[in-house]
Write a structure and sequence with these properties.
Elements (H helix, E strand, L loop, with lengths): L26 E7 L5 E7 L8 H11 L1
Antiparallel strand pairs: 1-2
Length: 65
């Protein structure tokens, strides 16, 4: 069920099943809201992996600002 609330150290896998027909040109919109109410969005092609440590990187960058 979305939106997901993840705590530190949690991860999530997203799988698409029928009736959804997705192509390699489709994109997933990743939206992150931190506990400081900062919001980040990025589109990822379905053929592109979300880099390991991406969420941690976003949080670290938010804490620097």
């Amino acid at each position: 069920m979305f939106p997901l609330v993840l705590t530190r150290g949690n991860s999530v896998d997203v799988h698409f099943h029928d009736p959804y027909k997705l192509s390699s040109h489709d994109e997933l919109l990743l939206e992150i809201t931190t506990t400081k109410d900062q919001s980040f969005t990025k589109h990822f092609r379905l053929t592109q992996s979300i880099p390991k440590g991406y969420l941690k990187q976003i949080v670290n960058e938010a804490n620097v600002e």
